Amino acid sequence: MRIDLHTHSTASDGTDTPAELVRHAAAAGLDVVALTDHDTTRGHAEATAALPAGLMLVTGAELSCRVDGVSMHMLAYLFDPEEPALLAERELVRDDRVPRAQGMVARLNELGVPVTWEQVRRIAGDGSVGRPHVATALVELGVVATVSDAFTQEWLADGGRAFVEKHETDPFEAIRLVKAAGGVTVFAHPGASKRGRTVPEATIAEMAAAGLDGIEVDHMDHDPDTRARLRGLARELGLLVTGSSDYHGSRKTCVLGEYTTDPEVYGEITRRATGAFPVPGTGGA
């Protein structure tokens, strides 16, 4: 089985619609794909309706979190999307994205970059607006060559010249909320140091004690040494190890199935989840 547990669609900052994403996942030879848009489940219905036969969909979301001043992302799988407390927290995070993005546009203007809110809104379309949409605007203007080049201290990285904070959930609260909604939590790309400061291993150990289920080890932002270190940490803490592409369509260079999750780990995730269940494809629309 080929299992990719971290992808994005136009419901957040990907460039594939949810329907396109699942069709592309099937064409890439995946057996299981998780749709984990940022702080939203809005793409799940479309993805489910278009799901090709032979492909299993894991519903999820990537939650924006912050601990001790460090931004981090928490992948949440197979939770009840209507559970009131988790839904309210996702909406709080999502609603703060617009003023945050507008603030980044204002800071870029102060730095002499002629980006406009209308440009960013056009790029975001119906998705939850975020830094990648602002970064894409910088690419369109020729300020940077790629979206990744915008995530530096010069521009949009945490603490960068045009960075603006938004509401982010405490990860311990995120773990509690997701578990209460029947879901499973995995810390996304914990060693992605090129994105900015990373969470210390001691804090990851505290998260594990609080119920964190796993860490995403095999990821494009982790070099071999980082993957080896994280795999050892997972063994030490009794955490599941996942791998995934973090696919964003054409917005990033990663491809579907670039990294995958072991079928036994996937099976354990589905065994632990009680809020929702993987959806089998029936042919799609």
List the helices and strands and how they pair.
Layout: E1 3-7, H1 18-27, E2 32-35, H2 44-49, E3 56-67, E4 70-77, H3 84-95, H4 97-110, H5 117-124, H6 131-140, H7 147-150, H8 171-180, E5 184-187, H9 201-209, E6 214-218, H10 224-237, E7 240-243, H11 263-272, E8 279-280
Parallel strand pairs: 1-2, 2-3, 5-6, 6-7
Antiparallel strand pairs: 3-4, 3-8, 4-5
Mean pLDDT: 95
Query: Hey, roughly how much beta strand do the residues contain?
Result: 15-25%
User: Helical amount among residues, as a percent range?
Assistant: 25-40%
Backbone CA Rg: 18 Å
Describe the structure.
The chain is α/β, with parallel strands linked by helices and 285 residues long. Helices cover 38% and strands 15% of the residues. The chain contains 11 helices and 8 strands. Helix 2 links the parallel strand 2 and strand 3. Helix 5 crosses helix 6. It is globular, with a radius of gyration of 18 Å.
